[in-house]
Amino acid sequence: MSIKIALVGNPNSGKTTLFNALTGSNQYVGNWPGVTVEKKEGRIKWNKEVILTDLPGIYSLSPYTPEEIVARNYLVEEHPSAIINIVDGTNLERNLYLTTQLFDFGIPMVIAINFMDIVEKRGIKLDLSKLSKSLGCPVIEISALKSKGIKEVALEAISVSSLRDERKKRIFSSAVEGALEKIGEVVASSYIEENELRWLSVKLFERDDEIMAHINLSDDKKAKIEEIISSLEKSYDDDSVEIITSERYDYVTKIVDKRTRGKEKMSVSDKIDKIVTNRFLAIPLFALIMFAVYYIAIGSLGAFLTDFMNDTLFGEWIIPSVTALLEKLEVAPWLVGLIADGAIGGVGAVLGFVPQMLILFLLLSILEDCGYMSRIAFIMDRVFRRFGLSGKSFIPMLIASGCGVPGIMASRTIEQQNDRKITIMTTGFIPCSAKMPIVSFVAGYILGGGWRGALVSTGAYFIGIAAVVCSGIILKKFKAFAGHPSPFVMELPEYHLPAAKNVFKSTFDRGWGFIKRAGTVILIASVLIWIGQNVSLESTSEAELSVNEDGSFVTDGEGNYVSGVHAHLIYGEDGSVVGYEKTEHKGLHFIENGCTSKSVLQVVGECVALAFKPLGFGDSWEASVATILGLVAKEEVVGAIGTMSDGGLETSSEEFFDGSFLKGISFMIFNLLCAPCFAAIGAIKNEMNNRKWTWATLGYMTGLAYAASLVTYQIGILFRWGSFSFWTVVAFVVLAVFLYLLFKPAKFSIIDTCKRIFRKKEKANK
Ligand code: GDP
Ligand code: MG
Q1: Mind listing the pLDDT tens digit for each residue in 91-113?
Q2: Which pTM does this prediction carry?
């Protein structure tokens, strides 16, 4: 009889090194059926009876990744006689987490602490006998690279393999152990082998649906189990997966602490966390804090500073004085317009928001640096996980509140392919710094600032989160995205006073990027828009010479007739004016005063505006042009409005939105959610590494943005003005489809492998 020994450990813990050292050239490399995970098997050089299997590296045994599924199936289906658990000695805590899961399988185990050469170099001493006693299995120090201790490990594994694993390892608190035991009693039946009962109980306690479904429990038993779980959850005020996870960590921490660190105490952080991460209080508290942040940054103090920058500094001081100066220098009028209204108007409109932005980032940096934001990631994990996403998706989103590009790149930390895709597709929904001016513009200039403005800007942040969560729920129902969320392991740092240096640096970095873009991309775009707005292809000849009521031509103050751009006077022989002749401009020309011909920008804008008509803000071609320009950079949305408006941002609400707050909100929602700027699109393309998925992302974002704005605007005007049209019907249909997708049950079961495991057992027993 051959002895099967499995090598299990974290990635890079040295499994393959040990495997090669033990097997020499007697190895077989292939693939596990159905997945591309490498399969390595070999016989030990000096004992051909022993077959060693190098399992793929994993951090946990929950079936989140193909590697984990392979490892878990191997342990359940192949019944290895023993496990060699390789532990990276330089990172005991993280590695021993997996060890605690291996205990549940009830397979004899030897723990090999690897990298001992490095551990010793660092002057760390491990107390092996104590470790072995608290872990309840042999612990051996090795260095796979230096081939130290490797024979001992193999011999130990061979010797334990003949034993039945009688240790009933109890690592959880007595309350949890009690619950597990009760669950075990409920499910115990003939076809479940006794040493698998514990693993099964733990999985059931974690509400592993697939396993629940495939062991065919009666409703009565299911209800009993649910009652056991929920009563424990109530007393812990946490959900079962988190209870198990945190108790595993507690166990590991205790073991490691005894050897390397001092005693534990209930710290101030723990006390704060009791409130801040409380199941019921956490989210309302978060909303309240964000509201306070936005109230200060956008509603009150920030609004005051931005008003000053936009209206006084740029509107009353800089633009008029630059204009005056240029006119004094006798610069051509068109150039004065280009510089004063185009360049300074556009850049100024964007720079005006710098104070708000700096305050916002200062406050967010403080929240981040004091440790609060990591709690939010932790809380969000709880929310996201319910929808099949992991808290890991929240980290890119946190980063994206500065800029979407690094946010999208941060999605790399998510191992689960489908989750990564969803995260890349949705990270752009979070309002980044460049979208802040849009929000502040709508909050301040259309809604009039104050608490209403603060509510809307906090709302904008949560609209972003809601878009992410809803997308997660909906996309997860499609086969292309199905799958369990990646596990989320994160250390919560102690709360501490934010370090001024970190806070100012991160505020400055974000603010500086914004200012830099204002001086480059925004400047160029503003100049181009001004040109587009002041250049016409063809005059419409509408403006002729003005005629008084009595039929005479209008004269200027000195009694001279005025030649217009589109008409010139015809003089009679006596020198009196007898009529006029229309002139037509063909080709590109500057639009001069008193002329009503359409600018190039207007011609293009009016075409685009058609598409936005149902969203309300399409009534203004300027708002539509601004939206399209958001592709260049989101700051330019407001920059363009500043350039195009006659009186700067202050009058733009009346000019472009008819003073309608519904149009303003619809405009904001669309611009927040639609396809991001070119830089972010580039990042999406890089991370997706696939053209089809890049287009799908852009289409999805824009589609969702359109739907959200349509529903908001149409249903808004229905209730506000009772206005009903074809588009109202469309809005309701869209809303219905959205709600259907949101609430319809998911069809795709996530893991078929568990099914296989249990079906097989049932058959064998019949
Ligand atoms: P696996 O992912 O668990 O299969 O890990 P590998 O066997 O590929 O090892 C990962 C890296 O760690 C390789 O570069 C090894 O050379 C190195 N390594 C493995 N064991 C030791 C050890 O005991 N000491 C040192 N210093 N390096 C090791
Ligand atoms: Mg390997």
Answers
A1: 888 889 899 999 988 889 999 99
A2: 0.59
By the 10 Å C-beta count (0-12 exposed, 13-18 middle, 19+ buried), 137 is classed as: buried
pLDDT at residue 561 tops 70 = no
Which single residue is written with the structure tokens 């599924």? Answer: 69
- Each domain of the chain, given as residue ranges in start order, spans 3-160, 174-261
How is residue 53 written in tokens?
């299997």
Q: Which CATH number fits domain 174-261: 1.10.287.1770, 3.90.550.10, 1.20.1250.20, 3.40.50.970?
A: 1.10.287.1770
pLDDT at 44: 92
Tell me the three-class secondary structure of 412-425, residue by residue. Answer: HHCCCHHHHHHHHH
Distance 206 CA to ligand 2 centre (A): 29
Cα of 11 from ligand 1 centre, angstroms:
9
Q: Do 401 and 634 touch, CB atoms closer than 8 A?
A: no
Contact 295/304 with Cβ under 8 angstroms? Answer: no
Q: What is the pLDDT of residues 394-423, one digit of tens each?
A: 778 877 877 788 788 877 767 677 778 888
How far is Cα 149 from Cα 426, in angstroms, rounded to an integer?
49
Q: How far does the centroid of ligand 2 lie from the alpha carbon of residue 352, in Å?
A: 55
Percent of the chain scored above 70 by pLDDT?
A: 83
* Ligand 1 contact via 11 beta carbon (within 6 Å): yes
User: Torsion-angle region of residue 265: left (phi > 0), alpha (psi -120 to 50) or beta?
Assistant: beta
Angle formed at CA 156 by CA 151 and CA 161, multiple of 5 degrees:
130
Helix (H, G, I), strand (E, B) or coil at 737: helix
91 lines ligand 1 (CB under 6 A): no
The rounded distance, in Å, linking the Cα atoms of 600 and 597 is 10
Strands 3-9 vs 109-114: parallel, antiparallel or unpaired: unpaired
Helix (H, G, I), strand (E, B) or coil at 233: helix
Q: Which atom of ligand 1 is nearest to the CA of 11?
A: 2
Task: Evaluate the CA torsion angle 46, 52, 57, 60 in order and state its sign.
Answer: negative
Fold exhibited by the domain 3-160: Rossmann fold (3.40.50)
Mode of pairing for the β-strands spanning 38-44 and 109-114: unpaired
Point out the ligand nearest to the CA of residue 19: 1
For residue 683, the model assigns a pLDDT of: 85
Positions of E strands within 342-476: none
Ligand 2 centroid to residue 97 C-alpha, Å: 19
pLDDT at 510 over 50: yes
What single letter denotes the amino acid at residue 348? G
Q: Is the pLDDT of residue 542 over 50?
A: no
